[in-house]
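Table 4 source record.
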Amino acid sequence: MADRVSVLILSSDLPAIDIEIEKSKVRARCLELYPDREQLYEMIYESRFQRLWDQFRDESEEA
């Protein structure tokens, strides 16, 4: 699931809101599997998504 979000950030023209929806699905699944690990999700996935966004998306587009 996280790989899908990464690919969407890297190689699609989807609007930011659609990518945010996909990110929320990843978050929900992670919390379903590991309910007490939200901070770990933030450290691993949100930071990864933000780095990809900063590197490969237009600066005028907000995540």
